[in-house]
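Write out structure tokens for Aminoglycoside phosphotransferase.
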Amino acid sequence: MNWAERIVSATGLAVTGGRKLAGGDLGGAALVELADGRKLVAKGGPLVEREADMLRAIAASGVPAPEVHHAADGLLLMDHVEADGAKGWDSLAEALHRLHAPRAATYGWDVDYAFGPLAIPNTPQDNWPEFWARHRLLCHGEKVDGSITARLEKLAKRLSELLPVSPPPALLHGDLWGGNVLFHQGKLAALIDPASYVGHREGDVAMLTLFDNPPDSFFDALDLEAGWRERLPIYRLWPLLVHLRLFGHSYRGSVVSALDALGA
């Protein structure tokens, strides 16, 4: 059964049009038009039900996310969100306050996730530096060259001195780069493509500032804990290691620079 047939089976409506959506390095999505005039985004893959749960968790926190209409048997159908790219940093800061509101939870998630072929382990832990060391740094050790592995091991031993042991547990988007933040008419329209887990909110800030440059007013509005800028290289190491493994040697220099900044 092809995608169109599966969408008909899931919605009870004929597919009258569609096109592939641009963006994303690891997975495809398509815009589909239904007979009743609605536009949905369709994604396929083995983890779409987990993505759907993350989108629902984000929406439940009061942050805009696409409404999920179907998530089963490798097919995800959700609302298409209009975006024009006109950034509204203030509205994103307000949304992150809601998303990151402290919750009674252990660090991690109830299931693992993945960026394409690269696993994201999320086994819950009560100690935040241990979670970050084990599931965001050391898990890459045997997959990268030995000199970086040794430096990651050295850094991991110091994380209890560099990171808070028990920061307020926050729901994180988990992959909060600019392409996953949709703006429309100067307001946040939706967060998409999450890789959510519970952790320290600075992890999302580090991801966002890896490729984007929000204004100072954005950080002022977030009212982050003292020392957050010094911790950013620790949290940036994870996406940099992910990029190194997925996209190759061109990211090695950025990984080394982050380790240099941390004295590892």
